[in-house]
Design brief:
- The chain contains 47 helices and 30 strands.
- The chain is α/β, with parallel strands linked by helices.
- Helix 3 crosses helix 6 and helix 23 packs parallel to helix 25.
- The radius of gyration is 54 Å and the shape is extended.
- InterPro entries: AAA_6, ATPase_dyneun-rel_AAA, DHC, Dynein_AAA1S, Dynein_AAA5_ext, Dynein_HC_stalk, Dynein_heavy_chain_D4_dom, P-loop_NTPase.
């Protein structure tokens, strides 16, 4: 009972369980198994890998062994009291009844092919199974019976999808794709060697993937796949799960597994510290550190646990901080001998130790609120990407960042810790706080961080604003440690709220490294990032060395920078697959090929890959980092900068910029530092001493930048009114001015560079000139070839939006987020603004088949245009073009890092490389693949400006902003709000131009009163604007009362105006048509009246004629009756004759049928004769013709032929006819139907002769025979035809 339950209990519950057992079984001494040999082997293995074989660790390894392995192999064991015990009988060998107990070890064995190691991070769960496996393998090598070698197959099931884990069918092709687990199970189960195979599931347990293993965990030990394949698990294969908790596991899963719970209190942090101290070779230095751990670290950790508060997002386990502190102390060598008697080595070691404690376990933090909570997020966003790093020369310090110090404590905790340290340790100077000092290794004393800063630093105005790097002391507290950790192969994580410079800190740290030894890979995480995305991005920078082994390209050490590492969305059960993939790599040094299911070993840490991450504070789309992943990092925490820090950062740059201005303007600059932010500073640095060299002008610029940075982000009138009032209060408080005095037009000033011939950023006071310029630019744009013409109404708001967009995209890496409902002019005004800046405009064209592949192809062309051809381009992208969510992921990467992974194929990349050869030579950059890629990205970011046109309607916009932080952090927001009344009137006037409101439907000119039509047009426009505005107000009221949303967009207003014009035109056409119909009807009525009068007169005349014709008809009727009688008589006679004729016709038909029968009888002979003629050829005719004196029979035949042809029957004539080439054709075409009786009689004189027979004639000449046949046939046909014709 004890062995089955103690392993599952926490540290606090073990004494309670033992007390209960003692109460149930009083006076019973509970025996314990003697594992002396096993414990010795475990201790040896732990020492071999530098671990401490403490009692708690040994117990957990043995409990894992008891839960995992087979005990029936050693039926006889002994207890700690030295008495042997027989497992078969369940009795001690001395028959002491106090040691008799009864249980079936076989049942215990059957349940142990699946076990779970459960517990918090840093509780040695991984160590337990690794040491156990190594111990069993060691005992097997020592030839001890009952022990086998152990093969390990670790994997993280949450780093893969369910299909990639178990296998799935390809829905498109129907092919089966194997899974990682199914492949491992198949291979291990088919291996018949006696080695133990442990399949390790090192990751979170959920109710999906684990439930598919229930049939493997129970007595069936059978894995059934989707393709109906069944894999039986033999005895040498077993499962082991290592997880943080079982919060979502089902009871069925829990009941099928053996369980071992690891509690941090069983171990604590001392075993790790002792292992680390063992690595220090100098014994004196080791003992000094050990005393410091005992006397300093122990009370500090207790103080931190009870009284101090850590920052959100990087709250780690206690041991994680201790490990980070040891990492920080590791590179420091043991102190050398003292230079003088006054040197205190013990004190110097304590300085180092306290510095490590302060910087790692209890670093500083502050949280200050500058503005009301409604504007706090805007303030934080304006600080993001603040001026960050700076290069200077002191050793080990290459860049400094304008952020707050690393922090895991809030301000109250900071003060408590500072007071506690000063009360217990007197080694710090009295000035400032303990956070403001570092240890000078040469002087062996604390020195302020300010000493590390360069003197008289100046920024380069010619460099891009994103490249301006400001030195601050606060950055040194992070960067020095981060650089050292990365060089030593330890991963670094920076957490903190938005706007504190986390990303810039890491970027500056990476930029300070030697690029010949290090390469970087930026991975911008978002809510849609998957583990496969992360794996593909990293593998794009790896190269294969041997089978399954990958290293960073170029032999460098690669640092994978994971921006917004806690952004990936959690699944239904709370895990984040991309982060689980990273932890799999960090713990085991590999991940799996998703297509071929084998390991891909990625060389980790010192000589391979190391991670650097940035995590925002949890909330919104961001989640707290898993504790197990957080333990892999050396963590820092940053908070919002203080006002003093902001003054140092921005004042350094602004004061340098204002050096050439007059003293009054310099005073203004010093005052406004209190209210400055990064994006406002960018505008102030565009000031020119020739244009803003007076106090009012410079203040107008400051007001303009305030409105652009803050005011443009506000959407509600009450917030905007508050902001205007607040600006007025600040002007009155610091400058004794009012907003209306500074801006007499009661509107904020407007600045731009495009009206100035020298492109100076100046105050635009002449709005008429500004409107005229933009109208001219619009006309030029519409006249450009290949563009779609835009018919825009440039009212005041539209002009201001154009100026805002131009202001942003004219700056380096300036991107805009235009937020407004459809029809508000976002895309049209962006095109015009891009044209004003002389940029190309680019938009994708979405079709029904448009997908990620087509989108990447379009972006490939965009990259080539901007990066290779160096064409400045504005990429306009609308939310209506987001066909797939991966589009937003790509846009997020474009905004944050400018990189799209695997955009070019190898051959295409070679073309890019060739195109960038000259620019890279000019920039003195070596053409390696990595350098080309980075150079291309920099050129793209320098020439590409992204303008996003999104609609705030619905949840999509809010979700995208939360899930893809770069959409806000890397853009300047411009809200396209509801059109004001003036804009509505101006649009209506524009659309009503050319409409004749007083036109006549008859086309006749009407007398127009002066200005009457203009008054009518103004009234119409006013009514339209009133209708639109009132509908908008009632939509708001409907939302407030009914919580139902209805949107009235500018498109609706344009449809109202155009609909009015169309309806007016249609109604006019309809009325004109009705009027024309009426006019035509009246004309027809008049015409009909005239016709009726004429017809009445004609009717009287017709009546007289009718009477006369009636009398004549009576007379004619008598004549007609007489004629009718004669006609009837004639009809009877005709009928009699017709009857007789029909009888004669019957007789004639009979005769005709007989004649036709006779004629048909003659046709065969005729056809035979014709065939005979066809058989003749030229040679036969020549033979007959060659006779000088022909035979009598031949001559007789030819005479008959000549008679039929109507020629003289002589031999001379016969020869002439035979010489005719058409002779035979004449015979074939002979007119046999018109042979005269005379000719028939002459022919009869020949045919009646006895020798005029074809057979007889044929004995003389074959040609004569054919002619004889023809003559006889013609004669017969002629006679028959004559007979038929006569009948």
């Amino acid at each position: 009972m004890r062995d089955m339950n103690v392993a599952r209990l926490t540290f606090k519950d073990v004494p309670l369980f033992e007390g209960i057992m003692q109460d149930i079984f009083p006076n019973v001494e509970v025996p314990t198994l003697d594992y002396e040999m096993l414990e010795g082997a475990i201790s040896a293995e732990m020492r071999l890998v530098g671990l401490q074989p403490v009692k708690g660790a040994l117990h957990k390894v043995i409990q894992t062994y008891e839960t995992k392995c087979d005990f029936t192999t050693n039926p006889v064991s002994s207890f700690d009291n030295g008495l042997p015990f027989d497992f078969d009988s369940g009795t001690a060998l001395d028959s002491n009844p106090a040691f008799v107990f009864d249980f079936d070890m076989g049942d215990l064995q059957n349940s142990r092919h699946s076990s779970i190691l459960l517990g918090d991070t840093n509780t040695a769960k991984t160590v337990s199974w690794k040491i156990l496996a190594a111990t069993l393998s060691r005992l097997h090598k020592q030839k001890l019976p009952g022990f086998e070698n152990v093969q390990l197959y670790p994997m993280n099931p949450k780093a893969l999808t369910l299909g990639e884990l178990y296998g799935e069918y390809n829905l498109a092709t129907g092919e089966w794709k194997d899974g990682v687990l199914s492949s491992i199970m198949r291979n291990t189960c088919q291996d018949e060697s006696p080695d133990q195979k442990w399949i390790i599931f090192d990751g979170p347990v959920d109710a999906v993937w684990i439930e598919n293993l229930n049939s493997v965990m129970d007595d069936n030990k059978l894995l059934t796949l989707v393709n109906s394949e069944r894999i039986a698990m033999p005895a040498q294969v077993s499962l082991l799960l290592e997880t943080l908790d079982l919060a979502v596991a089902s009871p069925a899963t829990v009941s099928r597994n053996g369980m071992v719970y690891s509690d941090y209190k069983d171990l604590g942090w001392w075993p790790f510290v002792n292992s680390w101290l063992d690595t220090i070779k100098e014994l004196d230095y080791r003992e000094m550190l050990r005393r410091n751990f005992l006397t300093i670290l122990t009370p500090i950790l207790e103080l931190k646990r009870l009284q101090l508060t850590e920052g959100h997002g990087v709250k780690g386990q206690e041991l994680t901080g201790v490990r980070s502190m040891c990492r920080l102390l590791t590179p420091l060598p043991a102190p050398g001998p003292p230079a003088s008697d006054q040197d205190d080595i013990e004190g110097f070691v304590k300085m180092r130790f306290m510095f490590a404690v302060i910087q790692v376990l209890c670093p500083a933090s502050q949280e200050i609120e500058f503005y009301p909570s409604s504007l706090r997020s805007i303030w934080q966003s304006s600080l993001r990407s603040s001026i960050i790093v700076y290069h200077f020369t002191p050793a080990n310090v290459s860049r400094v960042l304008s952020i707050t110090s690393p922090a895991t404590l809030d301000e109250t905790s900071r003060r408590k810790f500072d007071n506690w340290v000063r009360e217990h340790e007197g080694i710090f100077p009295l000035k400032d706080t303990v956070y403001d000092y570092y240890v000078d290794e040469r002087l062996r004393q604390f020195r302020p961080w300010e000493d590390q800063l360069p003197e008289h630093w100046r920024y380069n105005p010619a460099s891009g604003f994103h490249m301006i790097l400001v030195p601050t002391a606060e950055f040194l507290r992070v960067q020095l440690i981060a650089i050292e950790m990365l060089k030593c192969g330890h991963s670094v994580l920076v957490g903190g709220p938005t706007g504190t410079g986390k990303t810039c800190l890491i970027q500056g740290t990476l930029a300070s490294l030697d690029m010949t030894q290090y390469s970087t890979q930026v991975i911008n995480m978002s809510a849609q990032t998957t583990s496969e995305n992360v794996q593909d991005i990293i593998e794009a920078r790896l190269e294969k060395r041997t089978k399954g082994n990958y290293v960073p390209a170029g032999g460098k050490k690669m640092i994978a920078f994971l921006d917004d590492i806690n952004m990936p969305a959690r699944d239904e059960y709370g895990s984040q697959p991309p982060l689980e993939l990273l932890r799999l790599w960090y713990d085991h040094g590999y991940w799996f090929d998703r297509q071929k299911q084998w390991r891909k070993n990625v060389k980790p840490r010192v000589q391979g890959m190391v991670l650097a991450g940035v995590a925002g504070s949890p909330g919104g789309a961001r989640s707290p980092l898993p504790a197990r992943l957080l333990s892999c990092f050396h963590a820092f925490y940053l908070t919002t900068p203080t006002q003093t820090q902001l003054n140092n950062i921005f004042g350094t740059m602004l004061n340098q910029h204002l050096q050439e201005f007059d003293e009054e303007t310099k005073t203004v600059g010093e005052t406004i530092l209190m209210q400055i932010a990064k994006k406002r500073l960018k505008g102030l640095l565009r000031s020119n001493k020739d244009y803003q060299n007076t106090r009012p002008r410079f203040l107008r610029l400051w007001v303009h930048e305030c409105f652009r940075v803050f005011y443009d982000r506000l959407t509600e009138d009450k917030d905007r009114d508050w902001f205007v009032a607040h600006v007025g209060d600040m002007l009155g408080k610091h400058f004794d001015l009012t907003f209306h005095a500074l801006c007499p037009s009661k509107t904020p000033p407007l600045f731009g560079h495009f009206l100035n011939p020298f492109e100076v950023y100046e105050d635009i006071l002449d709005m008429a000139a500004l409107r005229k310029y933009i109208v001219n630019q619009l006309d030029e744009y519409n006249g450009s070839p290949g563009v779609v013409k835009m018919d825009l109404v440039l009212f005041k708001d539209a002009i201001e939006h154009i100026c805002r967009i131009v202001r942003v995209i004219s700056q380096q890496r300036g991107n805009v987020l235009c937020v407004g409902i459809g029809g508000s002019g976002r895309q049209s005004l962006t095109r015009l603004a891009s044209y004003i800046c002389e940029y190309n405009s680019f938009q994708v064209v979405v079709t029904k088949t448009y997908g990620v592949k087509e989108f990447r192809e379009d972006l490939k062309g965009l990259y080539t245009s901007c990066g290779v051809d160096a064409k400045k381009t504005t990429f306009i992208f609308s939310d209506t073009q987001i066909v797939e969510q991966s589009f937003t992921e790509i846009i997020n990467n474009l905004l944050s890092s400018g990189e799209i992974t695997n955009l070019y194929k190898p051959d295409e990349f070679e073309d890019v490389k060739q195109g960038l050869e000259k620019p890279m030579k000019a920039a003195n950059v070596m053409q390696t693949n990595e350098a080309v890629n980075l150079f291309l990205i920099e050129r793209v970011r320098a020439h590409l400006h992204i303008v996003l046109c999104f609609s705030p309607i619905g949840d999509e916009f809010r979700n995208r902003i939360r899930q893809y932080p770069a959409l806000i952090n890397s853009t300047t927001t411009d809200w396209f709000l509801e059109w004001p009344r003036e804009a509505l009137l101006e649009v209506a006037y524009k659309f009503l131009e050319g409409v004749e409101l007083l036109a006549s439907i008859t086309g006749e000119p009407i007398k127009k009163e002066p200005n009457r039509e203009d008054i009518l047009r103004g009234s119409t426009a006013s009514i339209m604007s009133l209708i639109h505005s009132s509908v908008g107000r009632y939509c708001v009221k409907m939302w407030q009362e009914l919580r139902r949303t209805n949107y009235v967009t500018p498109t609706n207003y344009l449809e109202l105006v155009s609909g009015y014009k169309e309806m007016l035109q249609n109604k006019r056409a309809e009325v004109a048509l009705q009027a024309n119909k009426l006019r035509n009807g009246l004309g027809k009525v008049e015409e009909t009246t005239l016709l009726v009068a004429t017809m009445s007169a004609e009717l009287e005349v017709a009546k007289e004629q009718v009477a006369e014709y009636t009398e004549q008809c009576v007379q004619y009727m008598g004549v007609i009756n007489a004629q009718q009688r004669n006609a009837d008589e004639q009809q009877r006679n005709v009928a009699a004759r017709s009857k007789k004729t029909m009888e004669e016709e019957v007789q004639c038909k009979k005769l005709a049928d007989a004649a036709m029968k006779d004629l048909a009888s003659a046709m065969p002979a005729l056809e035979e004769a014709v065939q005979a003629l066809d058989a003749l050829n030229k040679k036969d005719i020549t033979e007959v013709k060659s006779y000088a004196k022909p035979p009598q029979k031949v001559e007789m035949v030819l005479e008959a032929v000549l008679i039929l042809l109507g020629h003289e029957p002589t031999w001379a004539e016969a020869k002439r006819q035979l010489a005719d080439q058409y002779f035979l054709d004449k015979l074939r075409d002979f007119d046999k139907d018109n042979i005269s009786d005379k000719t028939l009689k002459k022919i009869a004189t020949y045919t009646s002769k006895a020798d005029f027979d074809p057979e007889i004639v044929g004995t003389v000449s074959l040609a004569a025979k054919s002619l004889c046949l023809w003559v006889r046939a013609i004669e017969k046909y002629g006679k028959v035809y004559k007979s038929v014709k006569s009948s």
